[in-house]
Each structure stands twice: as structure tokens, then as C-alpha cells.
Design a protein that fits this description.
single chain, mainly alpha, Rossmann fold, Glutamyl-tRNA Synthetase, domain 3, Glutamyl-tRNA Synthetase, domain 2, 3-stranded antiparallel beta sheet, two-stranded parallel sheet, 9% strand, binds glutamic acid
């Protein structure tokens, strides 16, 4: 039977997601979806001092924005919960107890001071520092006596000397000497599980098949592999992925500032572009195609193609991709996105206005936030009496141009494909040179000398607004001439 693919994203709620941990989440999600498997969210929240208020909610918001839906998690439930480590204390205790019973682990009654003295002596003698034979070899009678005294103890794993080998899917076979690890602590004297113990217990109990995570966790892996062995279980496939660096090459931080995931949302990036970009940072599609939608990403992900080099965030490319994804949206969807933004809503435009604008201006849009300026520039009533606008309208040819434009567009079907050639043809018929004809029309519609293609502007404005703006400009020129004459 084929293996069930189960991946997990296991953030600590110590801050908002940045592009680095979002990338880890994205690869786990894509891989699970590619194989029809399950994507699990697990909160590693045992370090209560580092947890921040709202950390879990902001992680979920980030995942939701990227469209990384979970099959199991703290907000979804599932067969292998609970999905917050802070709620799994009993499981860690039971697992520790089982290891003690099996003789794989032992109780260590040393105080921190004793451990320190022992460590210093071992280093002096050239012995492995992380072992303490007194506790490791205590007889059951001795242990019971200490327990009866109420002595506190840590639970430590018996780590064998010699090579502990493990496989990483990208890095191949790696190994570390057990003496360098020492008898690692699984449960501290205060009862809290250590990080590696909790992760291994959870990955095992949640039946995670693939652990895809940052290369920074490579050094934790042999410790986790030892625990799988102690539990007589197969370890998952480990895939340690290179690091994502901030623009300019620095480290990403949880107080991420410019690289916080949700800041990209607020800056107007299309979420699929961010997903697309995070994937490109990791692997490339065999045909070199860079603009990939969600289903293409799910289809195309190949963890064996993940490169070894760290990736630096390239905002220019991310912005370009955002433009590609925005352009691929149906105009209704783009208009709806725009309408949700307060700066666009404050322009007071109808849905139909936004939809026409989306049809012709998507090409000029890279970020959703570009819209307010662009739309404001087009839809705001033109100021004709400004110095530059008035100068254009005062030119001899302006009246002929405005009247010709009004006449021809009045009779033209209102589509960008018809409006453009109609205006071009009538311009030619008037015999006016390009600028002489087009500049007054542009000023009549927008009050400005530059901007998007003027037929596109007319289309976005709609027939009624366009013809009325032309009529106003014709009036304006008339009055100006009468005044001048
Ligand atoms: N909680 C760890 C982190 O936020 C991830 C642990 C793991 O993926 O194994 O870095």
C-alpha cells in the first residue's frame, strides 16, 4: 500500500510569520497536496516565556492569506490531537515513562551544580561531557530510595557511543558521534519536556511521514532519530531546506518588519504570487516557467529539485510575479479585490466602474495598492482650468478634436477593442497631428497631460461620463474663446 503522506508545519507562536517560515509552510502544504496527503498545523508553544499574545492567530491569518488550508490543527481538530504542545503534557509523560520502563531512559537526580561539576571534570579528563554514569547505572533499589525521599529527577535517554547515522533527503547520509551528544535530557526536573523530545513524540504520534523544515534544525535530527529508535519506530523522511535571507542577504527575524508575511498582504501583493515566489526560491520547474498558479505549483513540486543554496528575497521579482497573477484574474475578481480596499472604497465608484477599469488597467497593475492612485487619477472629475490643462485646451485644434471624439464615440460600441480604432480613424480624418488631437481629448477626460491609453480611460469611465466630460470641455473651450474674442 502506498505510504500516506503527512506533513506538518510546526511554528512556535513567538512572533508573526516571515517569508522564511512561510516558505517552510508552503513547501509542506504543496507536498501534501501533490500527494493527496494531509497537512497538519502544530503549535510548539511550550516555551511560555517566548510566546507572544496573538501569535497563534497571526500564524493562522498568514496561512489563510496564502491559502494554505490545514487538514488538522488546533483550529480544526483531527485524529491525532491535541495540536498544541502545551496541551500534550500527558503524552510526553507517558512516553517518558515507557522509555524508563524499557530501560532506554534513566532518571537523573543530579542537581544543576552537580552536573556542572561533573561536566567540568569530564572535560578535564578528556571524557564525553554529557554523561553521568552514577545516575545511568543506579540500581532499582537506589532509585526507589531517592524517589521515596522525594528527590526531583530529569529523564535522560541512554545514548550509545559511536556513530548515529541518519538520512536527509537532500543532504544524503550524515552521522554524528553519540559521545558528542551525551545522554540527552528528555524531561527536565520540573517536568517540562525538552524541545527534541516533544518534537519526536509529536511527529511519531501524528504519523508525520515527511519533515520538511529549515536547515537550522539539521543538528536536532540525530537526537530525534535516536528517539525513534528507542520507540522502535521508523523515522520520517527528513528534508532540510536552505535558508531564506532578507533582501540584501541579512537574516530574517520574527520582528520581521519589511519581510513579515502579512505586510506583503498589506502592501498589496497577490497571495498566489507570494506562494509562487516562495516555491521558486526553493525549486525550479523543469521547463523554466516562472509564473505558476496554485495548481501548477501543486502539480510541479518536487522536493528532490530543491537547491542547496540560500535564497535572498528579491522584491523586484516578487512584485513582477504579483503583476502576473493580478493580470490572470478575471476582471470581476480584480474589481472585488479593489473594492475591499478602503482607499478604493473612498473613491465611491460602482462595481461596474471597477470592473471596466479592471478590464483595461490590470496590465498596469502589479500590486492591489496601485489601484487607488490609478483609479483616482482617472475617475476624479478633471480640473480644466489648471494652467497646463487650460493651455492644451486653448490650442487652435482642440475644439475640432473634442467634437470629433465626442461624435465618433457617441456612435461606437463601448468596448476597448472598438473605442481605440474609432478614435484613431477619426483623428486621421481630422488631419490633425497626433498630439494636437489626443492631448485635448486626454485633458478633457482626466485633466492631465499623461496617463494610460486614452481609449482605455474612456472605456473605464463609461459612455455617459466620457461624453459628458467631452461636452464640459467643449463648453469650456467655447467660453474661453468667447472670453478671448
Ligand atoms: N518549532 C520549530 C520552529 O519554529 C520547528 C520545529 C520543526 O520543524 O521540527 O523552528
Amino acid at each position: 500500500m502506498a505510504e500516506t503522506i503527512r506533513t506538518r508545519f510546526a511554528p512556535s507562536p513567538t512572533g508573526a510569520l516571515h517569508l522564511g517560515n512561510a516558505r517552510t509552510a508552503a513547501l509542506n502544504w504543496l507536498f501534501a497536496r501533490h500527494h493527496g496527503g494531509a497537512f497538519v498545523l502544530r503549535l510548539e508553544d511550550t516555551d511560555t516565556e517566548r510566546n507572544v499574545a496573538g501569535g497563534e492567530a497571526s500564524i493562522r491569518d498568514g496561512l489563510d492569506w496564502l491559502g494554505l488550508d490545514r487538514d488538522e490543527g488546533p483550529d480544526r481538530g483531527g485524529d491525532y490531537g491535541p495540536y498544541r504542545q502545551s496541551e500534550r503534557g500527558e503524552r510526553y509523560a507517558a512516553r517518558a515513562e515507557a522509555l524508563l520502563e524499557a530501560g532506554e531512559a534513566f532518571r537523573c537526580f543530579c542537581t544543576p551544580e552537580e552536573l556542572e561539576t561533573h561536566r567540568a571534570r569530564a572535560v578535564e579528563r578528556g571524557d564525553p561531557p554529557g554523561r553521568d554514569p552514577r545516575c545511568a547505572e543506579r540500581s532499582p533499589g537506589e532509585t526507589d530510595a531517592l524517589l521515596a525521599e522525594g528527590r526531583r529527577f530529569a529523564v535522560r535517554l541512554r545514548v550509545p557511543s559511536g556513530a548515529i547515522a541518519f538520512e536527509d533527503r537532500l543532504k544524503g547520509r550524515l552521522s554524528i558521534d553519540g559521545d558528542d551528544l551525551g545522554d540527552m535530557v528528555l524531561v527536565r526536573a520540573d517536568g517540562r519536556p525538552t524541545y527534541n523530545f516533544a518534537v519526536a513524540v509529536d511527529d511519531l504520534e501524528m504519523r508525520i511521514s515527511h519533515v520538511i523544515r529549515g536547515v537550522g534544525h539539521l543538528s536536532n535530527t540525530p537526537k530525534q532519530v535516536l528517539l525513534y529508535r528507542a520507540f522502535e519506530a521508523e523515522p520520517p523522511t527528513f528534508v532540510h531546506i536552505p535558508t531564506v535571507l532578507a533582501p540584501g542577504g541579512g537574516k530574517l527575524s520574527k520582528r520581521a518588519g519589511a519581510t513579515g508575511l502579512l505586510e506583503y498582504r498589506d502592501r498589496g501583493f497577490h497571495p498566489d504570487a507570494v506562494l509562487n515566489y516562495l516555491s521558486l526560491l526553493s525549486w525550479s520547474s523543469p521547463d523554466g516557467e516562472e509564473f505558476l498558479g496554485r495548481s501548477a505549483l501543486v502539480r510541479g513540486i518536487d522536493i528532490d529539485r530543491i537547491g542547496a543554496t540560500d535564497g535572498e528575497i528579491d522584491e523586484e521579482k516578487l512584485t513582477w510575479l504579483s503583476g502576473q497573477h493580478i493580470r490572470a484574474l478575471p476582471p470581476q475578481a480584480l474589481a472585488a479585490e479593489w473594492a475591499r480596499r478602503p482607499d478604493v472604497a473612498s473613491l465611491g465608484l460602482d462595481v461596474s466602474d471597477l470592473e471596466r477599469a479592471a478590464e483595461v488597467f490590470a496590465e498596469r497593475t502589479q500590486l492591489y495598492t496601485d489601484a487607488a492612485t490609478e483609479l483616482g487619477g482617472v475617475f476624479a472629475p478633471p480640473e480644466l482650468s489648471g494652467e497646463r490643462a487650460a493651455a492644451v485646451l486653448a490650442a487652435d485644434a482642440s475644439m475640432a478634436a473634442l467634437e470629433a471624439a465626442r461624435r465618433v464615440w457617441d456612435e461606437t460600441e463601448w468596448t476597448p477593442a472598438r473605442l481605440k480604432p474609432a478614435l484613431r480613424d477619426v483623428a486621421k480624418a481630422t488631419g490633425l497631428a497626433g498630439r494636437e488631437f489626443f492631448a485635448p481629448v486626454r485633458v478633457a477626460l482626466t485633466g492631465r497631460a499623461h496617463g494610460p491609453d486614452i481609449a482605455d480611460v474612456a472605456y473605464a469611465l463609461g459612455r455617459e461620463r466620457t461624453l459628458s466630460r467631452l461636452a464640459t470641455a467643449i463648453d469650456f473651450v467655447q467660453r474661453f474663446r468667447e472670453g478671448a474674442g
